[in-house]
Amino acid sequence: MAEVVIVENEAAAGALVADTIVSLIRSKPDVVLGLATGSTPLASYRALARRIADDSIDVRGVRGFALDEYVGLPAGHPESYRAVITREVVEPLGLTPELVRVPNGDPATIEHAGADYEVALTAAGGVDLQILGIGRTGHIGFNEPGSSLASHTRVKTLTEATRADNARFFDSPDDVPMHCITQGIGTILRARHLVLLAFGEVKAHAVAAAVEGAVSANQPGSAIQLHPHTTVIVDEAAASQLEHLDYYRHAWANKPAWQGI
Ligand code: PGA
């Protein structure tokens, strides 16, 4: 089963994620990070940026692959995930921009953009640590309910629930694109370590379904159960519908220090 770590708040989750990524960079300076957008990972990126600055960690070789991108936003649109990843990750961490890839949502090349991304991921040797958020629909990446558990990077139609959730970033709900290009669930499962973060009551159902529910395309997050190394880091509110909370706390409290997450 996935390891579930219950933390006090997003800052505590961020510290844990930052520690883990710093160790990875130290052991593999050209580590491949799988990057998520959305509000959830922001505290982790901030904590990581602080650690990199405080400890003078050389990140020039660190590589990154974003999970997903909107289709059809003009190049340079501030809410394109290319722009978000540049603003929230590449610049604050000081990564080398050319080493950080985002799926290409340009309609002119969209027919082969998914296959191109898969080739680039494979050529990079795959993702070492994949950061994941989870949508209240249960999506990971933009794999909405019904997505094949074996899927590869491809174009998907967003659900209206996801478009509504993301409307806060746009001037009008109608401006939220209808389509996206996203790593598939099969793509995500090839990463060597999955770290799924979720905070707040609004995520409690999706977290319980992902961690303890049936493995089903109806709950894309449940695919994490198929992965041998998944860490789920949640606050109390997001953990509130988990059945085996006592066990997760017990296992974490008694975890050998050398193991990390
Ligand atoms: P959020 O989105 O981090 O903004 O809540 C998560 C997701 O939709 O995967």
Folded structure, characterized:
- The protein has 261 residues and is α/β, with parallel strands linked by helices.
- The protein has a single domain, classed as 3-Layer(aba) Sandwich (Rossmann fold), CATH 3.40.50.1360.
- Helix content is 35%, strand content 16%.
- The chain has helices spanning 10-27, 42-54, 81-93, 110-123, 160-166, 185-189, 204-212, 236-239, 245-253, and strands at residues 3-7, 32-35, 63-66, 68-70, 100-101, 129-132, 154-157, 179-182, 193-198, 230-235.
- It has a 7-stranded parallel sheet, with helices on both faces.
- α2 links the parallel β2 (32-35) and β3 (63-66).
- α1 crosses α2 and α2 packs parallel to α3 (81-93).
- The protein is globular and about 55 Å long.
- The two termini are 13 Å apart.
- The model has no long low-confidence stretch (mean pLDDT 97).
- The protein binds 2-phosphoglycolic acid (PGA).
- 2-phosphoglycolic acid is lined by residues 38-40, 133-135, 139.
**Percent helix range:** 25-40%
Q: What kind of oligomer do you see?
A: single chain
What is the radius of gyration?
17 Å
Output the CATH class name: Alpha Beta
Distance between the termini: 13 Å
